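Researcher: I've got a protein sequence and the SMILES for flavin-adenine dinucleotide. Could you write out the 3D structure of the bound complex as structure tokens? I'd like something to compare against our soaking experiments later this week.
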Amino acid sequence: MKVGVCLKQVPATDSRIQVKDPAAGVDTSDVKWEINPYDEFALEEALKLKDDKKASEVVIFTFGDKAAEAKIRDGLARGADRAVRIDDPALQGSDALGIARALAAAAKKEGVDILFCGKQAVDDDQAQVPAMVAELLGWPQVLAVDHIDYGDGSLRARRPAGGGATEVVEAPLPVVISCDKGLNEPRYASLRGIMMAKKKKIAVLGVGDLGLDPSQVGAAAAMVAESNWSEPPPRPPGRILEGDTPQVVAELVRLLREEAKVI
Amino acid sequence: MGNGILVLCEHEAGQFKKTAFELLSKARELAAELGGPVHALVLGDAPAAELGAWGAARVYQATGLPFENTGPKVRALQAAVAAAAPAVVLAPASLGAKDAFPRLAARLGLGMASEATDLRVEGGALVARRPMYAGKAFADVRVKSDPALVTVRPNSFPVPAKGEGSAEVVPLAVELQDGDLAAKVVERQAASSNVVDLTEADRIVSGGRALKSKENFDKVIRPLAAVLGATPGASRAAVDAGYAPHSEQVGQTGKVVNPSLYIACGISGAIQHLAGMRTSRIIVAINTDPEAPIFQHATYGIVGDLFEVCPALTEALGSAMK
Ligand SMILES: Cc1cc2nc3c(=O)[nH]c(=O)nc-3n(C[C@H](O)[C@H](O)[C@H](O)COP(=O)(O)OP(=O)(O)OC[C@H]3O[C@@H](n4cnc5c(N)ncnc54)[C@H](O)[C@@H]3O)c2cc1C
Ligand SMILES: Nc1ncnc2c1ncn2[C@@H]1O[C@H](COP(=O)(O)O)[C@@H](O)[C@H]1O
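Model: Sure. Here is the predicted complex with flavin-adenine dinucleotide in place.
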């Protein structure tokens, strides 16, 4: 069995995000890049399948420019076998559906049996790509899972269903899985892994290699456009309540009721 | 060109969720500018006609299929889009809509905006404002496709009182196709309590590392939440230490919440925690350290020991809320 991992590079979660120009979006010149935290769970799940000899090969898929190779190398150092980076001038400005079309074509070309994704990318926070890829491939999906039992040609995945409830979904392979926190504990790369990763292959594929219709990807096909960027409006300064415990508690209850009107 | 707004109205065992009323009311307001009718889509058995009281002129209702599965849900959405021919389809940013909307988008070649926190009409088109980078940036999103798909974060809009009227209910025929039930829910474990899910909760009381043990969390945070009818939440430090389950984690790798009231007890306010709760309307912070970053985001702050403040607050609220 061959498994794929969709891996995106995103600003580290503790990065300061600045909007200098409302038309241009966020300024990422200064941020530290990391593997999207949810994609770490996706990668770990794939690597565990390889450790358990259930998977013969783990392939990383990234839609992104050359700069994304640093984090692809990190994934290879943790144990993935090789990577496909999708990059083409014709793909620039793609929206989620354009990205999904490219990733779906790559996953199909590689013939993976399970495609692991993250629950969402913590930059655009869309949580759209995995289900779009599944639909484009005509595969089932189980999203935001925190436990998987593997069967023969199928799997059962558990996911939180709101309010502490959970549900278990059974699906045949091939399947797209998106991974939530709790699924596993991502490993670090070993020194040996880092050395070995230098020799592993990152193939770069474009629109032609993937058989994509150029009119269906890139800026011209994008149907979603962002504008008018801003940082969050500052919160009005808060109030620190002074006094002993009974006083501050009584004052808080009064404020919640009379000023904030939330109780 | 599509016309009007179609709203996916979710229910739990026949009881409409608050998001149904929230989105219908907002849709009615938007439709006044955008033009066209407000229609609702209901999957399964629920009193569909009553949605008229919140602004739905017509309700498309599909019944008799296992709509807890993604395949039938997408198929029903597809049928409803064909029947209603809307310019915009709205849904709450719920688990079910997150499963179905992107699939619908890919199937029909549509654009989608996720987790909008505000909607407006500009130049005759819908504009969704949404947070990105975990709420560190906001942008307007315009979706050019017809229809445009938009999910909305719960509690983004007020729910007005129930109005008058009853909607026309139109049965929606949905035909499943091969593969629609390839992925199937085979087991469901109900929540141990019947509190509202964090993502939909209007009040939340969260505890952090300062709680020091699960026993303390249960003794201090849960009763305070209970007295407020709030949902308990936790920081990642509290979850990782086993004081609370992961389903209660608020933040970048937990739940993104949007309540009217968020009470943070013994939580420092790390950037990844703020990512999950910074859009809360009123934030209360209880922390021994006056320098804790959470105070910079708090509407009201109490510098004090949570083991003293929280029980006193529970008691005071207990009498005040009677
Ligand atoms: C990739 C990534 C993702 C993350 N995702 C999340 C996430 O989703 N959610 C999340 O919460 N964190 C997340 N974190 C972790 C985050 O960085 C912080 O470590 C975490 O939020 C800290 O939790 P805390 O505030 O409970 O603990 P601490 O930061 O240790 O704060 C405890 C606070 O309690 C106060 N205190 C101590 N004793 C008392 C007392 N008796 N009474 C009152 N106050 C007291 C202290 O002054 C302190 O401010 C993430 C980190 C990373 C790197
Ligand atoms: N550019 C990309 N390259 C590789 N994988 C991606 C990319 N964008 C999204 N994904 C995958 O899809 C998941 C959800 O992303 P999103 O839908 O953008 O929130 C991510 O966690 C990745 O696994």
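Model: Helices of chain B lie at 18-34, 70-84, 95-108, 214-228, 236-240, 271-277, 306-320. Residues A 6-8, 36, 38-39, 42, 61-64, 96, 99, 103, 117-118, 120-121, 124, 126-130 surround adenosine monophosphate (ligand 2) (CB under 6 Å).
Researcher: Great, I'll pass this along to the crystallography team.
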